[in-house]
Amino acid sequence: MITSTFRDRSSAENAYNSLSSRGYSKDDVNLLMSDETRKTHFGEDTPATDLGDKAMEGAGVGSAIGGTAGAVIGAIAAIGTSVALPGLGLVIAGPIAAALAGAGAGGLTGGLVGALVGSGIPEEHAAEYEQDVKDGGIVMGVKPRNEEDARYFEEEFRRNQGDRIYKY
Fold this sequence. Notes:
The chain is built from nine helices and six strands; from the N terminus they run βαβααααββαααβαβ. It is an alpha+beta fold. The protein has one domain. A hairpin with a 4-residue loop joins strand 3 and strand 4. It is globular, with a radius of gyration of 15 Å. It starts with a strand and ends with a strand.
């Protein structure tokens, strides 16, 4: 897994495009951001793009989820790859959303850090990413299919102003 934080839509879009240029689909990419960041960068008055579509997949889901952890987990399981978590103010998309569903209600008790650690990100990096999300950042991650893709994505994340680029 290679992960990074992006501070603005343009950087995140460019990094996402580098992933899709190698044949990765939106279902391969983990995306984490606050609901506020989603509204700011990918809301109604912003241009439509593939990354924007991915960010918005979970947006219409939030009001249907309800308040309890059990209802949230049930909705995540039903949706599969993308969900808005209104209680936490997060939009989570990609394989990590499915992992949260598999974790059951306990998967949310540790908040975002617990979810990230559960997906294989070391706790100290998970805490950094949680702060980045709170500060308006867009965290993106992908599991490369091979070492060549891993090197390419690491370089592309750097080239596109990625912050906290980690490889696991």
